[in-house]
Amino acid sequence: MDLMQAIESRRDTRHFTDEAVPKAVLDKALMAALHGPSVGLSQPCRFLDVSDSPRAALIENFTSQRSKAETALDEPDRLRLHRSLKLESLAEAPILLATFCAYPEEEYTIGVIGNMRAVEWSCACAIQNLWLSLTADGYGAGWVTILDLKAIAARLKTPENWEPMGILCIGKPATDYEGRPMLEHLGWKNRELNLDAFYSVAHLS
Amino acid sequence: MDLMQAIESRRDTRHFTDEAVPKAVLDKALMAALHGPSVGLSQPCRFLDVSDSPRAALIENFTSQRSKAETALDEPDRLRLHRSLKLESLAEAPILLATFCAYPEEEYTIGVIGNMRAVEWSCACAIQNLWLSLTADGYGAGWVTILDLKAIAARLKTPENWEPMGILCIGKPATDYEGRPMLEHLGWKNRELNLDAFYSVAHLS
Question: Out of B3, B46, B85, whose CB is closest to A133?
Answer without folding.
Answer: B3
